[in-house]
Amino acid sequence: MIRRPRRLRTSKTIRNYTRENFVHAHDLIFPLFLISGENQKIPISSMPNIFKLSIDNVLMEIEECISLGIRAFILFGTPDYKDEKASSAYDSNNIVQLAAKAIKSKFPDVWLIADVCVCSYTDHGHCGYIREGKIDNDRSLDLLSKMAASLAKAGIDTVAPSAMMDGQVEAIRTNLDKKGHEEVSIMAYSAKYFSSFYGPFREAADSAPTSGDRSTYQMDPGNSDEAIIETKLDIEQGADFIMVKPAMSYMDIISNLSNSFSIPLVAYNVSGEYSMIKAAAQNGWIIEENVVHELLLSFKRAGANLIITYFAKEYLSNRSKE
Ligand code: PBG
Questions:
Q1: Are 228 and 221 in contact (CB under 8 A)?
Q2: Ligand 1 within 6 A of 141 CB?
C-alpha cells in the first residue's frame, strides 16, 4: 500500500505535529453575568459553576481568568428595574456600564464586549419595543443604538447586538460614530436562530418573554441560505465580527459563513449546550474534560475564529494542570 494515513498517527509527537486545528486561550471569550450589590455570587441552577456576580466579585473572577490566559469577556446584566422602553439599558448607572468602568480601571488591557439587546431590560422580555402587541422594528433601533452608545461611553470595546432587528448594525454604527466612538467595534450576532438551547441563559439573565416567543425576529432553524443573507447585510452595515448562535447544532452554518466571508467569525456555544454536557457529566455518562476539548476543537475545525463559551475558565484550568 503506498498511501497509509495511519503513518501520521503512529506516535503522540507525530500526531501533535500533524494536527490541523488547535484551541488557544486567546480563542475563548468568557461570558459574565452581572448583578448589583456587594459580595453577591448567585448560582444559576441550570448552569453549574456559573454565577451572577456583583462588581467586587467580578473583579476577582477576571483576575483569576487573566491568570489562566483569558483576556476577553462578554458582559450581560440583570438590571435593577425594567420598563417598556428598556430605560435601564441606557442608564449610565446600569450594572453593565458600572462594571465596565470598574473593570477597565483595574484591568485596562482586557477586551470587554457587551451584549446589546433589551430583553433583560423590558418588562415584557422581548428584544425590542412593542407597539400594539407587535415589535416595532425601527423604534427598537433607537433603543439599541442608545444602549450601544451608553456602553461605549462606559468603556466597552465592542458592542454585540443580539436583538435580530433589521438594520440594527447600521443604526448602532451611525450612533456610535455620531457620539465619537469610531473605535468601538461591532460583533454582530448575524445568524442567531430561534432556538430552544437558550433556556438556561434566560434563567440567568431573567429575560424570558412574558408572552409569545422570538420567532418573528430570530431565524428559523430550518434555514441556511438565510444565514448568508443576514451576514452579508451585517457586514454591509459595518459589522467587524460576525457570529453564529447556537454553535453545536449549527456547525454547517459556521462552516458556510467561514467559507463565504473573511472577517472574524465567532461561534456562541450557548447555555443549553453547556447545561447538557454538565448534566451528562454529573451523571457519569461522559468524561467532561475530554468532551469539552473535542467540542471546542470542532468549532475551530468548522471555521470559527473565536468561541464564546461558559467552559472557557474550566477548560483552561484543567489544561494548566496537565
Ligand atoms: C439576548 C441574548 C440571549 C442569549 C444571548 N443574548 C437570549 C435570547 O436570545 O433569548 C443566549 C445565550 C445563551 O443561551 O447562552 N437576546
A1: no
A2: no
> Does the C-beta of 198 come closer than 6 Å to ligand 1?
yes
Q: What is the DSSP string of 209-239?
A: -SSS-STTTSBPTT-SHHHHHHHHHHHHTT-
φ and ψ at 125, to 5 degrees?
80, 10
DSSP structure class, residue 193 = B
How many Cα neighbours within 13 Å face the side chain of 204?
27
pLDDT in tens, 32-75: 999 999 999 999 999 999 999 999 999 999 999 999 999 999 99
Q: How far apart are CA 222 and CA 64, in angstroms?
A: 40
Distance CA 159, CA 112 (A): 9
Q: How many Å apart are CA 273 and CA 198, to the nearest integer?
A: 9
CA distances from 48 to 52, 166, 267 (A): 12, 35, 21
Domain boundaries, the chain: 21-211+223-320
Q: What is the pLDDT of residues 10-33, one digit of tens each?
A: 999 999 999 999 999 999 999 999
Contact between 163 and 140 under an 8 Å Cβ cutoff? The reply is yes
Facing residues of 268 across strands? 308
Which three-class secondary structure state does DSSP give residue 89?
A: helix
Q: Is the pLDDT of residue 206 over 90?
A: no
- 30 close to ligand 1 (CB < 6 Angstrom): no
Cα separation, 270 vs 102, whole angstroms: 26
Q: Look at ligand 1, atom 2, and give the residue with the nearest C-alpha.
A: 162
Count of CB atoms within 10 A of residue 182's CB? 11
pLDDT band of residue 322 (cuts 50, 70, 90) is low
Q: Which overall architecture, per CATH, does domain 21-211+223-320 show? A: Alpha-Beta Barrel (3.20)
User: What is the predicted pLDDT for the residue at 131?
Assistant: 92
Q: What's the pLDDT tens digit per position in 280-302? A: 999 999 999 999 999 999 999 99
Residue-level pLDDT at 3: 97
